[in-house]
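Study the following:
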Amino acid sequence: MHWIQILLETTSQESEQLETLMLDLGALSVTLTDAADQPLFEPDPGETPLWNNIRLTGLFNASMPVAQIEAAINVEFATSKPRYKIEILEDKDWIKEWMDQFEPIKFNDNLWICPTWHDPRDPSATNIILDPGLAFGTGTHATTALCLEWLSREALSANSITDYGCGSGVLAIAALLMGCDQAWAVDIDPQALQATAANAQVNDVESGRIHINLPQQHPSLATDVVIANILAGPLAKLAPTLTSLVKEGGKIALSGILVDQADQVLAAYQDEFDFDPVVEKDGWVLLSATKKK
C-alpha cells in the first residue's frame, strides 16, 4: 500500500485556508512545519503562533485522484497559487524510519548523546542516553551542540551548575555525568521539567544531585556555572537574574543567539563579566564568560 503526499510552500496568512482545503478533500493528516528556520518565542496561554513561511504537508489515500487535488488548488487560489509538488509515498516501517534518523552524536572527544536503541560507540566516554521527545534539547540543534561542546571542555569536577531553560535536561545531566556535584534545572514549561526528571532517571542520576524547579520555585542560590540555552531576547531580559545565580569567579554560557544578536546579549552582561571569544556554529553563537570579582 502507498499514499499520496502533497507538499505546499505557503505563508501564515494562507495556511489556514490551505489546511481547510486539504481536509475538505479528505486528507488523512495535515502537518505544518517551519520553512525558513524561524525561531518562535514561548507562546502565551491559548496562543498558537505560526512561522511566517510554512511547509504544509497533506497525506491522502492512494485512491485519491491527483488531478482532483490540483484542480481544487487552482480554483481556491486562482490568483496566488502556492508552489507545490505531489509525491507517491511508499509504505515503510515508519517507526524504524524515524529511529534511523537519530544516530549517536559526538561532542569533542569525551561526550556522546546516544538514543536508547543504539549501543554507545565509546563505552569509556561520557554517554548520555537521550531519546528525541517533546522537550527541546537532543544535541541535533546547533545551540545545544555549542553548549555541550563548551561543557565538555570545562573542568566541572566538584562544581555546581544551574541549567536555566533546561528543556530536556540534557545540559544539567551532561554536567553531572562529567563531574558536577549538584545541578539545578529550571524551566517555565512543566512538561520540560517532567522530561528532565525522566531523562535524569534513565541516566542513573541520583535524585539528590539534581533539583528541578519552575523559576518562581528556584532558590536564590549562586552556582559555579550557569548555562542558558534560550533565545536572545529572554537572555537579555534575564541578565539580572542569571548574573545573580553565578558565583564570583564563576562561569556563564549563553546560547540560542543568532550571530547578529550577539552584541545585544553582550551589552546586557558585559559590566559583570569578562567574555571569551565568541564561538559560532551554523549561524548561531555561544557567549561564555567569567564573573568579575
Q: What stands out?
A: The chain has two domains: 2-91, 136-291. The mean pLDDT is 88. The domain at 2-91 is CATH 3.30.70.120 (Alpha-Beta Plaits).
